[in-house]
Each structure stands twice: as structure tokens, then as C-alpha cells.
Amino acid sequence: ELKKTNESEENTKQIGDEAVGVGDEAVGVGDEAVDVGDEAVGVGVEAVGVGDEAVDVGDEAGGVGDEAVGVGDEAVGVGEEAVGVGDEAVGVGDEAVGVGEEAVGVGDEAVGVGDEAVGVGDEAVGVGEEAVSLGEEAVSVGDEAVSVGEEAVSVGDEAVSVGDEAVSVGDEAVSVEDEAVREGEEAVSVGDEAVSLGEEAVSVGDELFTAETQRVTFTK
N or C: which end of the chain has fewer CB within 10 A? Predict the structure, then answer.
């Protein structure tokens, strides 16, 4: 059944049992779909769009905030221009983005792109399947890459950086402690400002530097 509201909310439409559209040109399509805001759109069973130009498409999808978008079953975008695209994808925060099944972006401009990718913290970025970034401006790029700490960076499949400004570049590279730097497949750095460059290079200790393949350096 197609219903129109009074003249104060022109062209508002609701299609489906208990569907609700409130606002100029608001549209609710689906049983119990709810849309509140000028040009808000909700399509799907129990889909919810709240905010001017908010969009939600999918069963139980939600877009809450001006221009927020939720596309996919149970996808959610909460915040101005927040985006959740993919089944159970979540974007929470102004301009936050979650794209992929169960992808999560939480924080202003946070990004999670890839199935189960996670970016938590303002401007945190996780790109890749199960990539995880936790901390402001933390970045993880690669399947199962992990960055934990402010401005921590991991680039490569299964690369790991733990600590503020820690950096790991290479598949399975690992950096632990603040400002540690790792570059090379399976390279490892442990200690403040420790540096390892080369495949399987290892530095364990503060301010150490290792730059040879398979070389290991330790301090007591």
C-alpha cells in the first residue's frame, strides 16, 4: 500500500506494513521501515534512516546522521556522512567508513575496508581481510595485518606493529615498542627505536640497528 502524508511533508511515501516516512521526500519501503529526515530513504524490513539524505538499504540496515549510509543486511552508518556497506558492516563517527562483511570503522574518519577489517580511532585505517588498526591514525594494510598504537603502521600480510609510531613493512614483519621500525619479510624489532632491515633480520634492545638478511642483534 502507498500512502502520502499531509502537504507539510510533500511527496513523503511509505510502502509496507507499518512503514514510516517523515520529512520532505522521505521514503520508507519495507515492513516496519522507518525514515526521518528530508530525502531520507529506507528500503528493507525494519530498515532505519534518520537524518537529512540518510540512506539505508537492507533488512535491519540503519543510516543515522545527515547523509549517513547503511547498505546491506544489518549494515549501520552512524554519524554525518558515515558509511556501512556490506552485511553487518559498521561505520560510527563523522565520515567513518566500514566496507565489507562485518567491516568496522569507529571514530571520525576511521576506515575499515575488507571482510572483518577493523579501524578504531580517529583516522584509523584497516584495509584487508581481518586487518586491524587500533589507535588514532593507526594504519594496517594487508590481510590480517595489525597495528596497535597512535600512528602505528603495518603494511603486509600478517604484519604487526605494537606501540606508538611503530612501523612494520613486509609480510609477517613484527615491531614491538614505541618508534620501532621493521622492513623485510619476517623481520623482527623489539625495543624503543629498534630497527631491522632485511629478510628475517632481528633486533632486540633499545636503539639497536640490524641491516643484514638473517642477522640477529641483541643487548643484555
Answer: C
What global pTM score does this model have? 0.76
Find the domain containing 29 and state its range: 1-96
pLDDT at 216: 46
Q: What is the CATH number of the domain that holds 162?
A: 2.150.10.10
Is 212 within the bounds of a domain?
Answer: yes
Question: Which of 130-144, 179-193, 204-218: highest mean pLDDT?
Answer: 130-144
Q: What 3 state SS string does the chain have?
A: CEEECCCCCCCCEEECCCCEEECCCCEEECCCCEEECCCCEEECCCCEEECCCCEEECCCCEEECCCCEEECCCCEEECCCCEEECCCCEEECCCCEEECCCCEEECCCCEEECCCCEEECCCCEEECCCCEEECCCCEEECCCCEEECCCCEEECCCCEEECCCCEEECCCCEEECCCCEEECCCCEEECCCCEEECCCCEEECCCCEECCCCCEEECC
**pLDDT tens per residue across span 71-100:** 999 999 999 999 999 999 999 999 999 999
**Which pLDDT value is given to residue 192?**
56
Strand partners, 220: none
